[in-house]
Amino acid sequence: MRPLLLTLLLLLAAPAYPAIDAMTWELGGLYEAACEYAEVDCTEIPSPLLIVTDFGRRINALGMYPLGTNVILLTAECTGRLADKTKCDGIVVHELVHYLTYLVYPKITSCQSEALAWDAFNAYVIDVKRYDLTRKDWIKDYPQCAQFQKLSSSSGTPSE
Fold this sequence. Notes:
By secondary structure, the chain is mainly alpha-helical. The chain has one domain. It contains five helices and three strands, in the order αααβββαα. A hairpin with a 6-residue loop joins strand 2 (about 65) and strand 3. It is globular and about 40 Å long. The model is unreliable at about 10-25 and about 150-160 (pLDDT under 50).
């Protein structure tokens, strides 16, 4: 209930921006990429709604997945003509991985989800040859997650 309340407060306090049409943002391809990076079979999982909003200075993030929702929030900064579309696409992939992992692995910890989401972000930007965008140092923003910096398939994949 609390994440939903946070989402509603953010949406009410922010200027209104229309939801980005999947064709405009090409969410379909990003959703498929997130499914692949997260190693999740998404055939029965609907893609979430992508909403653009202005986080302002309230949140130091470009995107957010409010836990328990079917919504991904993306900063309005990603819609400007100077926005780095590849970086913003990577953020969408990152948030999609959060959405998928919380659906598929209900007992996943926030640190496990962050590790998987940043691995997906890095894989995406490497796949599109934007090596300058990799965030191998993501852990510095999440010191409580230090043990998950290097996930391996044997220890990092959450159990159902």
